[in-house]
Structures are given as C-alpha cells and as structure tokens.
Design goal:
By secondary structure, the protein is an alpha/beta fold. Helices cover 50% and strands 11% of the residues.
Length: 382
C-alpha cells in the first residue's frame, strides 16, 4: 500500500502533463506473421505502424498475442512465443521508436524518451495450455494481461460464445476450481485479468475471486448493441465496484446493432471472392479486411458514424463514472470501424468528438490513459 501511495505522483504527472494515450488492444502482431509488413514504416493497409502511431499521438500500445482455437496443446503456447519474438524483433529494429515496458515507471521513462511503450496482452487462455509455469514464462516475457478465454472455452473457463450457444455440450460453466487458482496466481504476479470474451458465469466467478481490479480490454455496451461480446449494465457496475476499467472496442458490430445484418448480406454477395482470399491468407479476419478494402464503395456506407462510438463511451461514463472507461480499439482485429476511424492516426477525431459534447480535458485524459495507469498500478504495484 505504501509503495502504491508513493507512486501516485507519477500517475498524476503522466495523466495531467503528458496527456498519455494508451490503446489496450491491437492485433497487428499476429497479422504481421502473415503479411510480413515492416511496421516501422508507413503502410498503405492495416491500421497500425509506428509512423501512424506517432501521428495519432499514441504513447502506449498493448499488443495482442493471439491464435485461434485450432491451436491446442503443444502448439498454442509456441505460437504465443513466436508472436512475442516478432514484437521483440520490431523493437530491436527500431529501438529509438519503441520499447518494451512492464509497469507504470517504465512507461513513464518511455514517454519521456518519446518512444512508444509496448506491452503484451495474451488473448485466449488456451495459449497457456492449462499450465501455471507457462503463465510464469509469459509474464517474464512481458505479459501484462491475460484474456481468460477467446471465443473458445478452456478446460477451466467458459467463453461468451459457449455460454450462449453451446450450453448443451459445455462440460461446465464459469471458472472451475483450477480456473480460480489461475485467477489468484495472476493476481500474485501482477498480471491484469481480462474478461473480454468470457461468458457471464465466468465473469462473475472472476469478480468473486480476483483481489485486484480487472479489465475488459476490448468490449462495448450490451444495452446499446446486444452482442454476446458486450457487457450488460450489471456487469459494468460490477467492474466499477471492483475498481476495474472497460476499454471500448471500435469494431462496427460491437457498437452498431444494425451492422451484422448488413455485413451478412455483403458477405453472401461476395462469398466466392471471400473464400479465394481465405486460401491466400489462411486467416478469416485478414480475408475479410481485404474484401472490405476491395469493395469500399459498398462497405463504407455500412460503417456506423463516429457518434455511435462516442455514445458507448458516454453511456459508461453516465452509468459507472469517468474512472472506468478507456480505449481498446481492436485495430487490425476486424474489417470495419466507424467512419473516420481508419487507423491509429485517427484517435484525435474521437477525442475532438468528446470535446464537442462537453468532455473536459481532465475527463478526456482519464479516458485516454489515466484510467489504464491506475488499474496497471493497482495490479503491478509499481
């Protein structure tokens, strides 16, 4: 407790003076293994590179380490380390532009040196393959949060998809006794627990088990867009009571309840091209991204206005307070975002939109990065 109190001046310094901007979720690293893009140089596709990150004022990025459910025991952990190796290689190539950080103190040092602070979030509990020692190893390599499930459940935690679609075949609901041990171990290590993607039963088991504030690294509001990946009002209130933070996802389907219907019509129309693109990329998201880019004249009118993204942020602020919302764009993880939000260079448009509806600079700075720093500090203690 004393250590945390001593570090509070650091927290206030970063939020008030540096106007820190943190994004808690970007999938570019898993994509880069396929695209081979040099992320240190300006790219004409995708949503992230170091050039556009600087243009958008981004100070800290949590890079998602992810693989699909087809990776299981013996392969998922290897893929996690391969992606971390890729991030390390980027940092080695551009050491004056990006650096790995583990805590708030190191983040401050990175900001002072005008370098992007890179952090690691492992998206999907299947990537630890049920092993505590794999959690320890990933933490040593820089894991700052673990998303307990992706769409697929693990043997110790159930996902939102399985709790809503596959209850008849799911062997258990929520956290098992071993799942609760994992939560407690993450607490001990100072690794943030991420509840994006988990089912409601798992969510409330986490709330009851965790002794530290949790996060939802890339989720939105269920009341505004009733998608299983979004959080209901009771869940939002539980996160606030826990001291946690919800980081808003930019994906069109999570902020606009009308998007999925339009997108399904578009995909059916172009199913052959989409299947051909999948044979090239062997990745559903990358195939969809490329298809959307080819048919921008059709897909741009499907995108929601920026005002809907703002509405999700404002809803959370009004429901649970300004201290519990941040930014988790999910850039490079989906094919569609609100109009105008095309890359990390476009963050200023969002904050200008918040100013127009009356948000002060103090409030905006909490959304941009202050709330992230608070929850990071509460977990790591430094």
């Amino acid at each position: 407790m004393k250590k945390s109190l001593l570090l509070l001046p650091l927290l206030f310094c970063l939020t008030a003076k540096a106007q820190l901007l943190v994004d808690t979720h970007n999938d570019v690293i898993s994509n880069q293994l396929i695209t081979k893009f040099d992320l240190g140089k300006l790219q004409n596709s995708g949503n992230f590179d170091l050039v556009r990150a600087k243009a958008g004022g981004l100070n800290a990025q949590v890079f998602s380490i992810w693989c699909g459910e087809q990776y299981g025991t013996g392969t998922a952990y290897k893929m996690a380390n391969r992606e971390i190796d890729s991030l390390y290689a980027l940092i080695k190539r551009y050491p004056k532009q990006i650096t790995l950080v583990h805590n708030a103190a190191q983040l401050k040092q990175a900001v002072n040196k005008h370098r992007l602070a890179a952090m690691i979030g492992v998206e999907g509990g299947h990537m630890i393959e049920g092993r505590m020692d794999y959690i320890d190893s990933l933490t040593k390599r820089g894991m700052r949060y673990l998303t307990l499930t992706w769409n697929n459940s693990t043997a110790w935690a159930t996902s939102a998809r399985d709790e809503t679609r596959n209850t008849d075949t799911t062997k258990h609901l929520g956290l098992t006794a071993y799942g609760k041990q994992i939560v407690r171990h993450l607490n001990e290590l100072g690794v943030m627990i991420d509840v994006s993607h988990v089912g409601e039963k798992t969510f409330y088991d986490v709330i009851a088990t965790s002794k530290k504030p949790i996060i939802a690294s890339h989720s939105c509001v269920y009341s505004l867009a009733p998608n299983r990946r979004n959080l209901k009002d009771a869940q939002l209130k539980a996160i606030a009571k826990n001291g946690g933070v919800v980081f808003i996802n930019f994906y069109s389907a999570f902020i606009d309840s009308t998007f999925d219907k339009k997108d399904n019509i578009f995909l059916r129309k172009h199913i052959k091209e989409r299947d051909s693109l999948f044979t090239i990329y062997h990745d559903e998201t990358l195939a969809n991204i490329r298809l959307n880019n080819i048919y921008k004249s059709e897909t741009d009118p499907m995108r929601p206005p920026l005002s809907l993204l703002v509405k999700h942020i404002d809803y959370i602020v009004k429901l649970i307070g300004i201290d519990h919302v941040g930014i988790g764009s999910d850039f490079d993880g989906s094919e569609s975002y609100p109009l105008g939000m095309d890359s990390v260079a476009d963050y200023p448009k969002l904050f200008n939109a918040l100013r127009k509806i009356g948000y002060t600079e103090v409030a905006i700075n909490k959304i941009k990065g202050g709330n992230f720093l608070r929850v990071l500090l509460a977990n790591t203690g430094k």
